[in-house]
Amino acid sequence: MRAYIGGHQAVSVNDFIELALGTPPELWLGEEGESAEERAARLDAARDILADTPELPDEVARIAAEVIDAHAPTLFNVIPLPRPAGRRRPSRKGEAA
Fold first, then answer.
1. Residue 10, φ and ψ in degrees, nearest 5
2. Sequence-separated (6 or more) residues with CB below 8 Å from residue 63
3. Which helix (H) or strand (E) holds 68?
4. How far is residue 78's CA from residue 94's CA, in Å, rounded to a whole number?
5. Comparing 32 with 59, which gets the higher pLDDT?
6. Residue 97 above 60 pLDDT?
7. Please, are residues 2 and 9 in contact by the beta-carbon 8 Å criterion?
8. d(Cα 20, Cα 68) in Å, to the nearest integer?
9. How many CB atoms lie within 10 A of CB 61?
10. Distances from the Cα of 74 to the Cαs of 27, 55, 67, 69, in angstroms?
11. Other C-beta atoms within 10 Å of 88: how many?
12. Are 22 and 64 within 8 A, CB to CB?
């Protein structure tokens, strides 16, 4: 089965992320081993994109919330621990030590 978003075929998870955001994730996250010059250029490009698209952070937050909501049972697989049945110490409030 093939998945298309806006006429573009999404083959991997990164393709879906890039098509959803409109930018590659590496632009925001960086790449391993990038030089200081490459990092500065990447951050400069990111600033330009944010200046041109001020609604992008809201879109990213919306997409993240949808993903969390869709995958909450597996992301937050929390099992409540039983409370120990212990004795409570009586309060010593008001007594001299």
1. -100, 120
2. 20, 21
3. helix 56-75
4. 41
5. 32
6. no
7. yes
8. 15
9. 10
10. 28, 29, 11, 10
11. 5
12. no
Tokens describing residue 60: 């990213």
Q: Is 55 exposed, middle or buried (0-12, 13-18, 19+ CB in 10 A)?
A: exposed
Of 86 and 76, the one with more pLDDT: 76
Q: pLDDT by residue (tens digit) across 53-68?
A: 888 888 888 888 887 8
Strand residue runs (E) in 1-97: 3-5, 8-10
β-strand partners of 10: 3
Which residue type sits at 1?
A: M
The mean pLDDT of 24-39, rounded to a whole number, is 90
* Residue 40: band (very low, low, confident or very high) from pLDDT cuts 50, 70, 90: very high
